Amino acid sequence: MTSPPYDVITDDEQQRYRASSAYNVVHLEFNDKWTDDEQRVVQYRRAASLLREWRQEGALVLDAAPAFYPYELSFRWQGNPRRIRGLICSVEIEDWGGSIIPHERTMERQVGDRLGLIRETRANLSPVYAVFPGPCGELSELLDGLPEPDRAVTDPDGVAHNLWRLRDDRISELLADEILLIADGHHRYTVALKYRNEMRERFGPGPWDRIMMLVVDAGTEDLPVLPIHRVLRGGTLPDFGEPADGLDALLASLSDDPPSYGTVSLVNGMTAYKLVRLGGPPPAVCALHEHLLDALGADAALAFTADPTQADGAVRTGEAVAAFFLPPTTAQKIRSVVDRGERMPQKSTYFWPKPLTGMVIRLLDELAPTQAPLLPPVA
Predict the structure, then answer these.
(1) In the predicted model, is pLDDT for residue 226 greater than 70?
(2) Do the Cβ atoms of 207 and 363 come closer than 8 Å?
């Protein structure tokens, strides 16, 4: 059974997915972030043991030959039906700065955690999500001609995830020269790069030279890029900005171009909402950090959430000094940051919806000489 990526589920959601099935992929991927390093190693080894057991029991089956896996996400966005289509495939790992480009900074703790997990499981448990500028008409035509999906899952948010197997030699040629921007999965890619270097040093070339990715044509597919709001757990918030009449009004007034952000704090025990307009180029999250957060040295005191109500509640209950609300942005604006030779702050964007973990698992061990993915058996 599938779950959302490990970095977007809460502790409560983790427990719910664990309880839903002994074969839910969360048993492999999600480790207790509050444990010490020694206990983490135990968790990684337990995950590796479970993966072996599932294969032996037939809960997971090895696909017979290498393939591409077209992936479609169907959902409603702002009241209208939408879809995003791409391909799950294995991509050659490169050092940063070539044809694979990051746009966010990473957090070392998460990199260490995921590196420990891949060392033990020797598998890509979830795909990195990457986009290329496009448009690629031939790829769109190929995806238009697909039959009924081989796998279909609907997640708790009502997003339908459809998966196909596709063996077509033309695809590699279509995408060979594309520049890939990491949309989601910077930590996973950083981990794969470190793991590749470790394994090359010990064993030379191998399946660790590639990584599983969902690759999407940003020139054809219209990708919602939601904000990740900032919650300030300590320090002092400067007093500036225009008063706003509540959270809903504040969120509605935010703009990515020209950039603006909103704040909420407690003043004499009452919530005070303000809109702050900024100069400079978008996206607004970069302007917020340059204008305020970097100067405050606030990184260590920041928490992150895609839910504005959760951020607002942290201030109301006194758990946080302030929250900072940001507007949505676009893949094109993110690309403009990269083109300027810059990176966005950590946890800047929330590409939604995200591919599920567990639809495809890619093995990196000796039992997968063709680098073929694992798929759940047909129900």
Answers:
(1) yes
(2) yes
The answer to whether residues 246 and 273 touch, using CB atoms and an 8 Å cutoff, is yes
**Residue ranges of domains in the chain:** 61-224+352-375, 226-351
Structure tokens at 236: 């002092």
Q: Looking at residues 152-170, what average pLDDT do you find? A: 92
Structure tokens at 11: 């502790």
pLDDT at 379: 30
3-class secondary structure, 189: helix
Contact in structure between 90 and 371 (CB atoms under 8 Å): yes
CA distance 222 to 330: 9
Residues 6+ away with beta carbon under 8 Å from 123: 51, 361, 362, 363, 364, 365, 374
pLDDT tens-place string over residues 99-121: 898 877 777 777 888 999 999 99
- At position 149, the amino acid (one-letter code) is P
| Architecture in CATH of 226-351 | 2-Layer Sandwich (3.30)
CATH code, residues 61-224+352-375: 3.90.1530.10
- Report the distance separating Cα 263 and Cα 322, nearest Å: 7
| pLDDT greater than 80 at residue 356 | yes
Q: Between 35 and 271, name the one with better pLDDT.
A: 271
Question: Nearest CA to 328 among 348, 313, 345?
Answer: 348
User: What global pTM score does this model have?
Assistant: 0.84
Q: Is-contact 131 331, C-beta < 8 A? A: yes
Binned at pLDDT 50, 70 and 90, residue 298 comes out as low
The one-letter code for the residue type at 267 is: V
Helix 108-121 and helix 37-57, axial crossing angle in degrees, nearest 10 = 40
DSSP one-letter code for 220:
T
What is the Cα–Cα distance from 164 to 51, expressed in whole angstroms?
Answer: 23
